[in-house]
Amino acid sequence: MQLMSNRKPSIAAALCMITANLLTSTIAFAQNTNDGTDSAVPNSLPAIHNAYDEPAEELGTTSVDSAILYYKESNGRVQAIEPMVSITHTTKGGSIFSGKVTFDSLTGATPNGATPWSGTQTFVAPVKGGGEHGLTGASGTLVTNPVTGLKERQYTTSPNALPLDKAFRDSRIAVDLGYSRPIAANTKLNLGVNGSVEQDYRSLSGRLGIAQDLNNKTTTLSLGVNFEHDQSKPFHGIPIAFSQMSGTPAALNSRNKTVLSAVAGVTQVLTPNLLVQLNYSFGSSKGYHSDPYRLLSVLDPTTGAPLRYLYEGRPDKRTRHSVYGAAKLATGSFVTDLSARYYHDSWGINSYTVELSEHIPLFSKAYLEPHGRYYHQSKADFFTYYLPSTAALPSFASSDSRLDSFNAVTLGLSGGFELTPKLELYANAESYRQSKSGSLGVVPVGINNQKLYSGTNSISGLVGIKFKF
Amino acid sequence: MKFGKILAGTILLACTLSGCATVQPWQRDITARKSMQLGRHPHLAAARDHTYFSKEASAGGRGFDGGGCGCN
Q1: pLDDT surpassing 70 at residue A170
Q2: Which of A378, A385, A423, B4 is deepest in the core (most CB within 10 A)?
Q3: What confidence tens digit (pLDDT) does each residue in A376-403 have?
Q4: Given CA atoms A143, A146, A150, A152 in this order, what sign does their dihedral have?
Q5: What whole-number distance in Å separates Cα of residue B30 and Cα of residue A41?
Q6: pTM over 0.80
Q7: Which CA distances in Å does A389 have to A118, A123, A167, A300, A394?
Q8: Is A220 on the interface with B (CB under 8 A)?
Q9: Which of B21, B40, B55 sits opposite A218 (nearest CB)?
């Protein structure tokens, strides 16, 4: 049975109008500045002096920037608190040393990948530490398997509810170190390393880049490469793709993934008040790409009754391409920021993203910045909500909503306040809403009234302080 | 291929934009402003990128692919 989603919103049309407006004002401004006057501000608009109109002079300074993010998904799903702090020192010669530490603390419930059903569903999973430390009430109950004698975690999902695993709890620490220095009059070299550790995941990466200024520094060409090595090490081991979910840990402890990526870009000062940027990025990853916790329901193709639950399986390779363009236009003390990205990967996913923000000066030392983003992606070739019991197993399959076709809209408001030229407070609040796009495909009659799309809605808030000395 | 056409168009646009630029060094006061800097609040950009990376399939464009996170 084919089920169709809601009609697409007319955001694309609105963004087209905004883009046309941006281009029109740019052309008008270019005409103004070609009339022999060197005025940087269009005649029709008053010049408003604001602290953020001051030049961003960083040479010979050290800045400490710290912020804390609060993130919360609706319906009791993931909640995160993420403090971060960075220190950046810029020498008088233009070399930059930087360091950043980020800490994540995550709790909540996350979809396990199974489909909703009109009856109660019971899931059996391996238990951390062999069950010696017990379980919290929300994450399930501890039972002993009569055959294996192993302790297992058992949790249930109410009828018609999206199956969620409430045992999700993780913490992550990430460290980034960077260094940049001029190697010739108009050439900069930059390099850096990044490492992160979670309870079940480790990542280490190194990057190298070069930037070349041309045309009196109105053009900057940049090229960077990054190599990343990740290790996935869930406490219950790496499940074999399409093996049945059980309380027995897998034999294989961990698997790795490597990612090689490159970004080539050009940044151009097009007129005295307009900057544009164009990037192309490429990424190639090899190794383990599956989610070791994610399940797929095997359903009766007519009734939709769940018969068993299998671990998902994804391809071991992925190639990604992105084209990104951005423009920043100053009109008086206002700044319009528009960007767009087109993305394509070897899993069959295409996406486009459009973002727009407007920097609005407020009094002499503050600003507000409303922000909007629209995102659309198509589904991966191997995405499916379920596996029919009557068909042979496919080579790859996943029910991860991040591989589904959907739209996402972000609306937010950020702002900053320069207490002194060396001390700034800033904050941001935003909402993020995902909605299903396109057809759900063929769905068993017995579950055609169930909500199969498991995307999420979230809100987040961030406050930060930046100190320069 | 659709992506190849978009990439070719982007390269052509980049060359065209570079050719049109006539901004002199003494006209750089506006683009030197704090409000005109790309990536002015890196923590805010990182927080947004982390959310998008953990909830969407796409990556890259503004920066590198990957993400150093088991969240996707």
Answers
A1: yes
A2: A385
A3: 999 999 999 999 999 999 999 999 999 9
A4: negative
A5: 9
A6: yes
A7: 18, 18, 28, 6, 12
A8: no
A9: B21
Q: Which of A325, A270, A329 is nearest to A22 (CA)?
A: A329
Q: Which of A429, A315, A224, A319 is CA-nearest to residue B48?
A: A429
Predicted ipTM?
Answer: 0.85
Between positions 27 and 46 of B, the ones with CB within 8 A of A are 27-38, 40-44, 46
Query: Which of A17-26, A363-372, B8-17, B27-36 comes out lowest in average pLDDT?
Result: A17-26
Tell me the count of A-B CB pairs closer than 8 A.
246
> Which of A58-62's residues contact partners 24+ apart within 8 Å by CB, and which partners?
A58/A88, A58/A90, A59/A90, A59/A91, A59/A92, A59/A94, A60/A90, A60/A91, A60/A92, A61/A89, A61/A90, A61/A468, A61/A469, A62/A87, A62/A88, A62/A89, A62/A90, A62/A468, A62/A469
Measured CA to CA, the distance from residue B59 to residue B57 in angstroms comes to 7
Residues constituting chain A: 469
Q: Which residues of A touch B51 (CB under 8 A)?
A: 71, 432, 458, 460
Rounded to the nearest angstrom, the gap between the alpha carbon of residue B46 and the centroid of all alpha carbons in its chain is 13
Per-residue pLDDT tens over the stretch A347-360: 999 999 999 999 99
